[in-house]
Amino acid sequence: MAIPSVKESGYRKNFSLIATFIGLISVLFILSLFLAFTFSKKKIEGDFISAKTNVLEESIKPYNDFFLNKLPEISYYNGYLDSGTAAKFVDTILLKYPFVKRVVFFDAQIRNERYEENGLNVGSFSAGMKSVYQFGPYVSSDSVKIFGPNSVINNTTLENFNELALKLYTFIHKLDTTKMPTQEDLFSNFSNIKPNRIDYFNIPRFEDLKVYRQMITKKLPSEPVYQQDMLSFELDPSKIKIRNNRPLLYQSVRIEPVTYDPLETSSEYETGEITLGGPFSAYKLYFISSKSFIKKEILSYFFPIAALILIFYALLLLVAFLIYRNLNINHKMFKLQYDFLTNLTHEFKTPVSVIKIAGNNIKSATSITPREQKLYGKILDEEADKLNGLMNKLLAFTQIENKAIKLNEDRINIKEFIESTIDVHQLKYPDFKLSYEISNLTHFITDPVLLGSLFDNLVENAYKYSPPDRKQLHITARLIKDKIVLRFKDAGIGIPPSEINNIFRKFYRVQNQYNQAGSVGLGLAFCKELVNFMKGEITVHSIVNKGTEFKIVLPYIN
Amino acid sequence: MIGVRKYVWLLVTVACFACNKEQKVREIPVNDFFKTQDKAIYRLSPNGKYLSYLTIIDKNQYLIVEDLEHGTQTKISKLEERNISFYYWVSNQEILYYKEKEGSRFQTDLYIVNKDGTDERLLNADAKSKIRLLEDQLIDDKFLLVTSNKRDSTIFDVYRLNVRDGKMTIAAKNPGNFTNWLTDSKGKLRMAISTDGVNESVWYRENENKPFQKIITNNFKTTLQPVAFAEQDPNTFYAISNVNRDKNALVEIDCTNGKEKSVLFSNDTLNVVEAQYSKRRGKMDFVIYETWKKEKHYLDEESKKLYHKLEKLIPEAESRIIHQDKNEQLFIIRTFTGRSPGAYYLYYAKNNSLKKLSDINSSIKEEEMCEMKPISYITADGFKINGYLTLPLGVKPKNLPVVVMPHNGPGQRNVWGFNADVQFLANRGYAVLQVNYRGSTGYGKEFYAAGFKEWGLKIQQDVDAGVKWLIDQKIADPQRVAIYGNGFGGLIAINNAIANSKMYKCAAANTGILNLFSYLKAIPPFLTSKLQMYYEVVGNPDKDAEYMRQASPVFHAGKVKIPLFITQNPKDPRINGNDAVQFVKELKKLGKPVTYLEKEDSRSVLNREEARKKSYAALELFLLENLNKR
User: What are phi and psi of B277, to 5 degrees?
Assistant: First the structure.
């Protein structure tokens, strides 16, 4: 039997193609790793510059809250703040905003009458202080009142007041009394933002501002006195709590004066800075990280990306391998089918050629003796049987495989069944020694035709693959628990272990001298299909030159 | 079986649908509730020959004088953009009226005009001062008594105004703290009320040549309100007084020493709110006391007869005499009920007949409005709180969404009668609860004083107790209660929302007071004499700063937990517009749900209607979103 070459079959083995594919994706893999690393580096270096604003925003949040929400609360008191209420108000501020160091509260008045030393006088408009108090963690309780009756002598400057009072005056002087000023306008004119200090006047109603405006030009007969509260907040930028929300990026964040620029910063460090706004404009946030620190952050950014690429690469490899394996299996299948076709042709050829010779002989013979006639008749009959058997087997197998037949359920007597099988084969092969043994079992329900086929195949196989002097088979049938166990033990040539896994495959034949004639390699595959169909299992145990034992386990139905 | 059950279900569903349909209440447009009257301020000329009223034709306001005998009408004045806020017949020939000034809230110009519309004269046009008529009778055929603050914006003096040439001569100089003046039946200025902020005094003089003498002084918590001089007894006057008693009574007081001479009407449980004096008869007609609604107690048989006749003619509604001629032959009557704003009638005493003049609001159909029922409950600390409950039509009074409406203040109360706000909410399916929390007037001295400096404290608890009562009655759905108020009602609404966010689903403040400091700061100059009184009622910023801080919502944005609805008119001189803006800003920054609406204060009726529609629609949506989601 000739084995067809791969090329002739039309199939191509694409080892080179697969190799090229793997090569290419490997290049891609390395390239993407490289790109990912470069990207990570650029990203982290960019972050070092851009994330600064984020840190600034987070750190300055309490200040913004203080400035936008807490300061306007002073206006809610409409000038009615006194030292007691102011102290309570300031306490909440000192507690909540640690960067407020000291608060000076000016209990002030706007009137037409001049203030001699303690205020601002422009025309008939006078803004002056009644009393001044200071609050803060470092203010001792006996030095709270720093101006006014019974105040403590103090060297604190009260200049802040005049500064903001002048701003207030300028605003009122220019005030358009027909149009209400916007809130932003009012807020900016009633507050003064200085380095490390914020002064804030309570914002009066528009109606009051109109009166203030009149008070600039003339003395009002009603001699009005308006209460104004000014609070001056001294701020300490070093108490701003830095919220480093990128601790892996910035090794250290500090508050430094704007002028801070150390010489000794070596090339081992990466630095950055961003100016704090408002009253803290003389200070900046100073960011510093060592190069190795940044490298760590780059790597920690790079590794997940690399892992992703790696997983992707591994998946590609796996797919390539699976495609290769499938191709290989298909190729083997093709080879098997090809073999089968060759074998089958061969099988069919022998009887056909014998029939042809017999036919030719009969045709060319002038006369046929009764002996010749008997001989040819016998030959034709036998060869036709062979062909019929071959075809039946092929048909049955296809049916079973496609599940085109139905399982009949008959109650059979196992003893009678085995004995009849043995009788048939004993008749066929007088030199075949068959024996059997049954325990715990008399009847069970199954399809007798299928079971017969199974027995026939296994018995035939046992005979076929045994040397002439050891043609024997022992059949046992047992009921173990709820399973029927059938064993077919012969003393034949056995099956080499390397072939054990293949014997149940279609069209597979072990290469040996016994299966040259009348075998297509369907027998055992057919048996396996039958057993599967009957919801059972078939296994084989074999020793070369000693014998083979097939074990069939079927469900017991009674 | 299943088939039968299906059939039953179908029946039930159909039945439900049917009854739903039956109970469907028409949703009345917002502006229908608040329509301005077509015809308003009806007056009769002293001789009863002419009827006058204000009306709007093609968006312009006219003053109409109707000759009752001949039925002819005269358009006296056409006023573009400027409205007459009030007018008087000063004689049978002349009418005096105020015209509002554009862009100012408190000032008005005073005009006089002949009844046929000729010869309109401006009597007073001082941009800075206010002028008010004290007595609508002409003296010597040319003088009117008026009060004006033209000398000093914080002080009102009494002037004799010559209606012929507009000249004003001072009749009585106010020493500074006089707030009210009283004339006798001859138009002589003989009594004045003064206040130092906390204490109120009554001053008397025998005739105009003598100086005023102080006769009585009372704390402002005590009421002593002169009604009229007694005609028969020259040294006696009638007054509504609760001196030495809890509830107001009508008493006679001796002018010379201020002592109570006799009690005309007094009852331990009834509080007198009004007293009617007849100049013609020179007698007290009746007193009006107010329980859940106002009722009359007659002191004069003639007046009793008159009112009984009226009640027979108008049996279904309350009626009030708005105006009458000098001989008391013709009367202008106004009617109303809790479900109807009512109408104006002209009543002829001679033949006991009525003539309908006009409806107050013709868009309101009484059968579509809801009944306003008096309720009361007891608070944990033993106060009896009275109020009103208005239930929506067409639904069972069970598990309803509720809007609680604390009234404005200080020194006000909810009264029984047609209330457009309440009817609007009830028409939208809400039960409306109004409570006269402690500090409300009309329940005696003690109850009034109990509310002092209790904003955000006990007043708040009184309102909460009302909600709890309504929940206990199973009328309110505890999951769907909102609180809504104007002015001080708004302050209560937001304070309650902050303090008791579990009870209320949402809170709304319509031009609400958000800051007590600002409220005191914004008291206008002519009320500064009453500042000490305000300090006692609302809080003294010098002494009670901590309490005022606690009771002012503006300080507590951080504690707000439920959705708020806030409107304000930023141009309102009585508030500090920054408060609300800053408050809303802070709420938004904290991520609290808040709806903010700026209301334009527009003179034009059309714009005003548009603005009102917008703000009520927003309120309606706000309530719907927060109360109808379960």
Answer: -110, 130
Q: Across the A/B interface, how many CB contacts are shorter than 8 Å?
A: 74
Q: Is B340 on the interface with A (CB under 8 A)?
A: no
* B521 reaches A (C-beta below 8 A): yes
* Other CB atoms within 10 A of residue A489 CB: 18
**Residue from the list A73, A81, A222 with its beta carbon closest to the beta carbon of B555:** A73
User: Are B545 and A77 a contacting pair at CB < 8 A?
Assistant: yes
Residue B81, pLDDT score: 57
A5 pLDDT band, cuts 50/70/90, is very low
> Best mutation site among A183, A205, A218, A223 for testing chain B: the one with the most B CBs within 10 Å?
A205
Q: Is A222 on the interface with B (CB under 8 A)?
A: yes
The domain total for chain B is 3
B153 touches chain A (CB under 8 A): yes
pLDDT exceeds 90 at position A302: yes
Q: Are residues A27 and A135 in the same domain?
A: no
Mean pLDDT within A459-480: 87
pLDDT value of position B60 = 77
* Mean predicted confidence (pLDDT) in A5-11: 46
Q: Which positions ≥6 away from A94 have C-beta within 8 Å?
A: A100, A103, A135, A136, A137
Indicate the residue type of B425. Answer: L
Quote the ipTM score: 0.77
Greatest alpha-carbon pair distance for chain B in Å reads 102
pLDDT in tens, A379-403: 888 788 778 877 777 777 677 666 6
Which range is most confident: A179-183, B52-56, B418-422?
B418-422
Cα Rg of chain B, angstroms: 26
Domain hosting residue A250, numbered range: 1-49+240-344
Residue A107 lies in a domain: yes
DSSP calls for A14-47? -HHHHHHHHHHHHHHHHHHHHHHHHHHHHHHHHH
Q: Are A258 and A283 in contact (CB under 8 A)?
A: yes
Confidence of residue A407 (pLDDT cuts 50, 70, 90): confident
Alpha carbon of A33: minimum distance to chain B alpha carbons (Å): 45
Q: Does B527 touch chain A (CB under 8 A)?
A: no
Chain A within 8 Å of B543 (Cβ-Cβ)?
no
Total domain count for chain A? Answer: 3
Chain centroid, CA A313 distance in Å: 15
Interface test with A, best of B544, B578, B588 (most A CBs within 10 A): B578
**Rounded Cα gap, residues B558 and A73, in angstroms:** 12
Q: pLDDT class for A143, splitting at 50, 70, 90? A: confident
B518: contact with A, CB 8 A cutoff: yes
Asked if A78's CB is within 8 angstroms of B521's CB, the reply is yes
Is B533 a member of any domain? yes
